[in-house]
Amino acid sequence: MKDIDACLQDIAQGSMTALQQLYQELHRSIYGLLLSIVKNKSLAEDLLQETFITVYSKAHLYVPRTNGRAWVFRNLAYDALRKAKFTAPLEMNSGDGASLPNSRVENLDLMSALLELDEADRQIVVLHVVAGFKHREIADFLSLPHSTVRWRYRRALSKLAAILGGE
Prior knowledge:
By secondary structure, the protein is mainly α. It has helices at about 5-10, 15-40, 40-60, 70-85, 100-115, 120-130, 135-140, 145-165.
């Protein structure tokens, strides 16, 4: 397997073989991330396909010798959050037929709150909480000092608490 950086460079040149190799390398972890965000297998599968279509069409925007895995995951996480916000199924309670289950409302509130964070903070929260990356891994992905990632993460959690009313 070529490294991810080389695959992305080859994909930018139109290589379907490189796209297949990248898919084999990343599809399980991307699917897991998507499923943890959207909580819907069918939607996660659709987003997985869209992710690799996007990778193929936007590989020319990737800056070589940066972190290819982070580039794919960062873009994927934001796309999934945006998609999940607008496609979350509205399941009705058996009661009045107009309210959402509490957990669904809380998920939508959290998604909205995440989208209110600035991009750098949201990126760190999503990579840590949703994707399960350690702060040191995130620092490597984003080419930031470890202490900066930890500080931004704590700041983002404080902002989320304020947005959600201290819950």
